[in-house]
Each structure stands twice: as C-alpha cells, then as structure tokens.
Backbone:
C-alpha cells in the first residue's frame, strides 16, 4: 500500500503543481494581497501591521483585544499603564522599565505583562524606512480561566515576575500572524478571532511563562489577589485610597497587601495610585485641553502645588512645559 501511494504521488506531481498554483491564486484573491509560500511569518506579521496602521501611534482594531502600534522614529521614555497583555514586535525594538528593572524586546523576543502596570516605554529602534511595528494582544481573564480548568494542572506556590521577556516561539508568531491577518477579511473576525486568541493563550499557558499566567487566574494566589487590588485602585483612583477596603476586596490583610503589592509591582499602593492620577491628568491636558489646575482637581489633587511637584517628578517638567513639548512631537512618542 505504501509503495502504491508513493507511485501515485509521483505520477500525479504535475496535477498537484497545477492544484497548488490554482489554490494560491484563490488564496490571493480571498486575502486581497500577495503572499509568498514559505514567507517568514514575522516579516508577514510586519506587513499586515503596516497595512492596517495609518500614521503613527496606537491603532485599535475590529478585534477588541488586539491593538497595532507603529513608530517612525525612536521615542522619548514615556510613562503609561500597560494592561495585562502579550506584546509581539514584528520590526524594531523597545525598552520598558518599572522602577530599576528594565527589559529590551524585539522581533526575537516578546513581552508578557500579567497585571496592569505603570511602566516607562521607550522605542529604541525605528525609522521611516524601517518603522517599529508591534501587535498587542490583551489577556482575556475568563478565557484564561476556562483553559486552566480544561487543563487542570497544579499551580506552583512561588512568587513569579509580572513583567518578563521570552524568546519568540514560531507557533506563537504563526498564531498572531493568523489573528492579525483576519483584518484583511473582516467577515471572518467574529467566528475565527476567539478561536485564535484561545490558541494563543493556550500556547502561553504551555510555555515557559505558563506558571505566571496560572498564578494570575488562580483564586487565592498572591498574583490574583494583587490583580484584584489593582482593579479596585483603578476603579477609584481619583478618591483617597483606603488600604483596608482595597485589602478586603483582594482578600488579604493590610500588611500582606503592602508586602506583596510592592514585591509584585515594585511600588506601594499609594505610589501606584499616584502614577494613575498623573498619567490621566496628562491625558486630560494633552487630549482634552484641560488646564493644569482643572486636570489636577479632576484626578483627585486638592493642592495645585502638590500636583505640579509630583507631576514634574514623574514626567521631568511642570505640566504646562511638558504639554507644550508633547504637542510638538509625533503621537508615537506619547502613546507608546
């Protein structure tokens, strides 16, 4: 039987070649763009991102969990809140920092953030001819929990980093490329996007970063508790923080909250809230045209001088000077 099949393949090689050419032509017609057999998937991912991002900065897509990012030049170090997500760079490189901890990632490495963190991002390799191109895929907690329940693996009882880079995995890049590629065929997004997102989460769970994500989705783990504390602080960031209430929502004592919050985020709950307030005030001034006084008041500051002092400490300049500077630079330097 084996020999008969091999002979049949040999005799039908010309027919297969005709079939392959016809199939590729149909595929090109369906996708609306040229594809090369054997094309490097990272290069293909870069091409798809480039097709769907106009200008520079962060571009939302028809898929709620997927954002595309482009920069045509290196950016200044810019504080921003990074939500729990997978960041895959298809071209260029970037540095992100939290406190004194810094990592650099590129097309050969991806970034995984397991809880919402105020980070400082800095695109370090980008040009008009070879722009920085990145795909950000938000982690869906409910989908993550479903996958964990299906697998049923135990969660290790150790504290793990919440910000880490890993060598790019070909299967992960392939799945991301297929996910972003759905933007070329919008009619397929509703049916296929959730399936590919689930595949991506599965590959993350079964990779070297699996323990980190298992901690995030496991009730009672320190990472899960701190994630709940972060959600509570973000909901009421403009109000005075009450540690006992935040600790109760997280299911921890106040002392345990302080210890594990700082161990995981490298800042205290109050410092975390302060970063949220200042970044939102910056957005209100830059995008909404608010004055420094109004922006500070809107995010919970009662003292204009305290607001200005803490703003300068984080962003390197007083509010008005910082906003004037930002208004003269590309949006990519602000949003990334």
Residues:
């Amino acid at each position: 039987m084996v020999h008969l099949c091999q002979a049949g393949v040999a005799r039908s090689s010309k027919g297969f070649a005709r079939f392959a050419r016809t199939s590729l032509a149909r595929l090109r017609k369906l996708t609306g763009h040229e594809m090369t057999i054997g094309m490097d998937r990272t290069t293909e991912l870069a091409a798809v991102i480039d097709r769907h991002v106009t200008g520079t900065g962060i571009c939302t897509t028809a898929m709620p969990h997927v954002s595309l990012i482009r920069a045509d030049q290196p950016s200044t170090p810019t504080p921003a809140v990074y939500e729990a997500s997978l960041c895959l760079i298809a071209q260029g490189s970037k540095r992100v920092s939290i406190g004194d901890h810094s990592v650099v990632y590129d097309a050969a490495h991806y970034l995984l953030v397991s809880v919402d963190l105020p980070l400082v991002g800095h695109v370090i390799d980008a040009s008009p001819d070879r722009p920085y191109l990145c795909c950000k895929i938000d982690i869906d907690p409910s989908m993550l929990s479903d996958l964990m329940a299906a697998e049923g693996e135990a969660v290790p009882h150790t504290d793990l980093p919440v910000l880490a880079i890993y060598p790019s995995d070909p299967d992960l890049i392939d799945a991301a490329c297929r996910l972003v590629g759905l933007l070329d065929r919008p009619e397929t997004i509703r049916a296929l996007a959730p399936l590919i997102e689930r595949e991506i989460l599965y590959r993350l769970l079964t990779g070297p970063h699996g323990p980190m994500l298992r901690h995030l989705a496991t009730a009672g783990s320190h990472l899960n508790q701190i994630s709940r504390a972060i959600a509570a602080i973000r909901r009421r960031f403009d109000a005075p923080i009450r540690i006992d209430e935040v600790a109760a929502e997280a299911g921890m004592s106040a002392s345990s909250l302080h210890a594990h919050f700082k161990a995981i985020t490298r800042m205290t709950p109050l410092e975390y809230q302060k970063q949220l307030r200042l970044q939102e005030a910056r957005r209100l001034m830059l995008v909404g045209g608010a004055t420094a006084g109004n922006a500070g008041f809107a995010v919970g500051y009662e003292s204009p001088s305290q607001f200005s002092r803490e703003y300068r400490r984080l962003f390197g300049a007083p509010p008005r000077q910082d906003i004037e500077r930002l208004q003269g630079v590309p949006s990519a330097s602000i949003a990334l």
Q: What stands out?
A: Residues 25 and 34 are 9 Å apart (CA to CA). The longest strand covers residues 117-125.
